[in-house]
Amino acid sequence: MLHALLGAHMDWHDARLDFLARFILAVRQVRSVNLARLAPVLSSRAKTSSNYIHLQRFMRALTIDQENISCTIDKRPSQQPWVLTLDRTNWKLGRAEINLLMLGVALRGLAIPLLWTALPKAYSGLRGQKPPMVLRSDVTLLCSPSGNQSLPGTPPSHGRPSTPMSDRHPRIPALIAALICSLSIPTLAFADRGSVSPVTLAQVTTQTQRDQVVLTGNSVPWRRAELSPRVEGLVTELFVDEGSLVETGDPILTLDARLAELELQAAQARAREAEAASVDAIRVRDELLELKKGRHASEAEIQSAIAKVEMSAAALSGERAAVTRAQELVERHRLRAPFAGMVVSKGVEVGEWVQRDEATVELVAMDRLRVRAVLPQREYPRVAAGAEASLRFDALPDRDFGGQVLARIARGDERSRTFPVLIDLPNPDRLLAPGMSARVRLTLSGPVVPVLTVPRDAVVTKSDGVREVWRVREDEAVLRAWPMRIETGRALGDRLEVVAGELAEGDRLVLLGNERLRPGQEVTPQEDDSETTTPD
């Protein structure tokens, strides 16, 4: 159906129309214009890599003309003057940042872009800055019959010609632009300003905390061992592979122990023989002692019997020790895990001959980790064992982990004047692994300093990792909520430290209900502003 609808407005061939239809459906499905996310769902018949290449070719050939979009929107039946939207957004293309300012028109909940221009830098707002274009509140869209479309207030093209489109399909660029921008750009739409959203508010507060220092570090194993068997032999069983989790005492591998088992059987037989001889010697001694009462046994016979009892007991003890030794020898043909952890490497297979000093597997403890960070020399006197540490790993950027300083190593680098510091970090859920990079925030000894804090629930983390809060301001006796980007630091109970952002003590933030807000939307507090305080 979508294929036929597009074909009625475009003179493309069927294959290209089919790809455009699948592209639009894929965008609506994943709610993103990220090509890596679109490729897997674009078609089940082709490989993801092939879909990705086709998407790149399609996007390179796609052009969106500003004037044709304006003309297309102007032909839509709607009441004028139009409701305009203004959006400042920041995109990333690889490592390059692209900062755009867009003028759009609000239509059925979508902000369709009409004009856009690149900014020299990421604007946090237009206050105190000259905006790239000036908007008039009474703008009316115009589309002349001759095809020269214009928009009042539009800056001149500076001699750059625009590419006119065929009259047969002027709406297709507008359709694609509306679809892409409605899914990927957070617009400042005022079309629904009349709707009121009930929210719960909280305030930005100041707390006093000690100075901190932020370090970079890497996680290292708390315990690590290369396991070797205690005897040489042929590997007959292997119970683990790379990535296997084991507990203390779990078997790792077994060597051929047939000869050791035969020696054990022989030792057990000798022990039984010695035990029988000991029992017989005791019996003879006891009989002679009874005969002595009737003076039917001499003292020499009795002493000889007692000596045989002692010798048989000694022989039995020796044979039992031989049995224990043989059992230990058999057990040494089994390699067991000395502690709980994960097998991270395996260097042996069934059928191979291993020596006593040959490493077969590498085992790493996972329930705890150590983070090794580098401490500047000026902070060395202010860090002590047991000091609190807050860690944030690049692999889990939205989660803070708590640890303690285990030790500071008094061996500095003469060139960088830094000293190693070890942080002990529990890892009960095994979310972290050795080799991960982390940012370590250490609490230093010394005076306390004031810091701004916000409730944890007031912070919204977006898909690109950016954190923002919704600040409530009064606008003509009406409360409206606006998003504000912030950077957070350490966790302070149920609150987060604010290390960057245009917040001030006493600012009101949306605590509950911020997941459904639009910029500039009117809000009504359900409860009084809550001020959460934390002891110093």
Automatic annotation (TrEMBL):
One of its GO terms (cellular component) is efflux pump complex. Residues 145-167, 514-536 are annotated as: Disordered. Residues 525-536 have a biased composition (Acidic residues). Residues 372-443 form the CusB-like beta-barrel domain. The keyword Amino-acid biosynthesis does not apply. GO terms for molecular function: efflux transmembrane transporter activity. Keywords: Coiled coil. The keyword Coiled coil applies. Residues 252-279 form a coiled coil. Residues 225-361 form the CzcB-like barrel-sandwich hybrid domain. Pfam families: Beta-barrel_RND_2 (PF25954), BSH_CzcB (PF25973). Belongs to the membrane fusion protein (MFP) (TC 8.A.1) family. This is Uncharacterized protein. It comes from Imhoffiella purpurea.
